[in-house]
Amino acid sequence: MKKIVILLLCCTFLSACSGNPGSEQMDYDKTKKMIVDILKTDEGKKAIQEILTDTQMKQKLIMDQAVVTDTIEKTLVSEKGNEFWKKSFKDPEFAKSFATGMKKQNEELLKKLMKDPEYQGMMIDILKDPEYQKEMQDLLKSKDFRKHIQSTIEDTLESPLFKAKIQETLLKAAKEMEGNQGSQKQGQNGSGGGTQGGGGGQGT
């Protein structure tokens, strides 16, 4: 494990000591590839695991984590942070990627909250609140909401994914109907043949 760590440090040191500016990018790429290759080996993985399980390293990471968390919180609540998020969420691609990335965490959080008696009670109280009910009724009756619903329905109907799903459902239903009709015809033919056979026997 010590050999791996020393080798990683040597690679980093040699890359930093490169005096030729023209070869700086090349040295960086070589060093990066070398480190990645080392970390992919079993010895490299074991070395990282031992480093992360070291008591002193854990304490250092916890301290650094507190600093990082504090810095992030201060950045997020700052004016520049607010402007950054507002601008970023106006970008559809960013908003989609963010929502996709947080989907699993949000679902897990919601599941946990739904099982929490305190959260359940709070939601019930909100739903029973006359003021909230009135606001919901006003919202449902509003022209803007109806227009939004109509627009959503139209967009859904025009969606290629929705059209493909409807087409698939209709084709499946048509095949099932054909199968049922075929079974009924076979049953009718079988019963008709049996009746004719019985009549022929009586004639003889």
UniProtKB/TrEMBL annotation:
<keyword id="KW-0732">Signal</keyword>
<feature type="domain" description="Spore germination GerD central core">
    <location>
        <begin position="61"/>
        <end position="174"/>
    </location>
</feature>
<feature type="region of interest" description="Disordered">
    <location>
        <begin position="173"/>
        <end position="204"/>
    </location>
</feature>
<dbReference type="InterPro" id="IPR041262">
    <property type="entry name" value="GerD_central"/>
</dbReference>
<feature type="signal peptide">
    <location>
        <begin position="1"/>
        <end position="18"/>
    </location>
</feature>
<dbReference type="Pfam" id="PF17898">
    <property type="entry name" value="GerD"/>
</dbReference>
<protein>
    <submittedName>
        <fullName>Spore gernimation protein GerD</fullName>
    </submittedName>
</protein>
<feature type="compositionally biased region" description="Gly residues">
    <location>
        <begin position="189"/>
        <end position="204"/>
    </location>
</feature>
<feature type="compositionally biased region" description="Low complexity">
    <location>
        <begin position="179"/>
        <end position="188"/>
    </location>
</feature>
